[in-house]
Each structure stands twice: as C-alpha cells, then as structure tokens.
C-alpha cells in the first residue's frame, strides 16, 4: 500500500476540552478532516486513532478504520507514538508512506492533500522522506505531515530542516487549539457552510 492517512482524535484536551467534537459550520471539528481525507481519494486506508466513542461512531459512518488509541504520554513524541501504534495495529505488511492529518486543521482540504502527495511523489523529490505543510510565512502550520514509514521505524522526528515544504494559504493554515482559534475559524467560515473542495476561497 502506497499511503495511508492517520487521523489522531483523542478525547482529552487541556486547552480546549472535547475540541474534536466541537461544532464548526454545523459539523464536529474532526468531521472536516474526515471529509477532506475521503474526498482526496489518495489513501489506501484512512485510520482514525481515538479513545472517544463519538469520534469512533462518526468514523464508522465514513467507513474508516478505527484503532483504539492507547494511553500515551503527552509530550513531544506523542504524535510519533500514535502513528506507530496505528500503522502496526491492523495489518501484517506496513504501508510505504503515512500522512498525519490533525483534526485541528479544518480548512485543509482534499485539494491540499492531493497537492502535497503529488509534490512528494515527483521524481525530482525522490530523495525526500518527509514533507510538512507551512503557512505563507514558512511556519509549520500543523495541517499535513507526510513521511515514509521507514522514517517512523528509524524513530526519526516527523520532520526536520531538510523536509520538503508544502505552502498553504493563510486562512487554510488555521490551527485550532484554543477557544479563540475556534472563534476565528467560525469568523472565516461565516454564516454559510463552504465546500471543502473550495479551499482557494478560504
């Protein structure tokens, strides 16, 4: 399998309780990422790693693979442990590549996912084993982390200074970690629900 997606959505959050199921534009926050992943038509499998029954039920409605997220120490290596557990939990042979899609980036669309994967797989980029999305200021925005499974098995960081960069629009780069972030996302979205495919308008 060329690539799988991992969507990590644990129930606990210190700064914004239950953030993955908070409403944004009439949908739970995590559903924006589920829809984008499904619409991208890029992945051999979409894995939702969660300990939240509401998230698991939503993932089932999208026919996604659910992996029960274990208790993981929340430190700098937490995402790494979640990914490693998720990709090893469901099959004998591992995928070649993994894309981590955090639910806190609701305006990362199917288009962004396809473009990042296309960029990563270009022949001139074959020497890269990781890609990270950035905002127009070249700051990592948390929306897309793409890397080879070998990188995980070596226990290398998900990205570093040598990783390929994929630039996203400023509005699409919003990362929801606080109530203020959520309110900003609601202002960007406005009263009308916008199509996830229409990332350029955000």
Structure description:
The protein is α/β, with parallel strands linked by helices and 202 residues long. It has one domain: Alpha-Beta Complex (Spore Coat Polysaccharide Biosynthesis Protein SpsA, Chain A). The protein has six helices and nine strands. It has helices spanning 29-40, 53-61, 78-88, 110-120, 149-153, 179-189, and strands spanning 3-9, 23-24, 27-28, 45-50, 65-68, 97-100, 130-134, 140-148, 164-167. The strands form two sheets. Strands 5-4-1-6-8-7-9 form a seven-stranded mixed sheet, with helices on both faces. Strands 2-3 form a two-stranded antiparallel sheet. Helix 1 (29-40) packs across helix 4 (110-120). It is globular.
What is the radius of gyration computed over CA atoms, rounded to a whole number of angstroms? 16 Å
- Based on the coordinates given, report the CATH architecture: Alpha-Beta Complex
Q: Give, in order, the helices and strands.
A: EEEHEHEHEHEEHEH
The main sheet comes to:
7 strands, mixed
What's the domain count? 1
CATH superfamily: Spore Coat Polysaccharide Biosynthesis Protein SpsA, Chain A
Multimeric organization: single chain
Short description:
The protein is globular and about 45 Å long.
How would you summarize the topology of this molecule?
Elements: E1 3-9, E2 23-24, E3 27-28, H1 29-40, E4 45-50, H2 53-61, E5 65-68, H3 78-88, E6 97-100, H4 110-120, E7 130-134, E8 140-148, H5 149-153, E9 164-167, H6 179-189
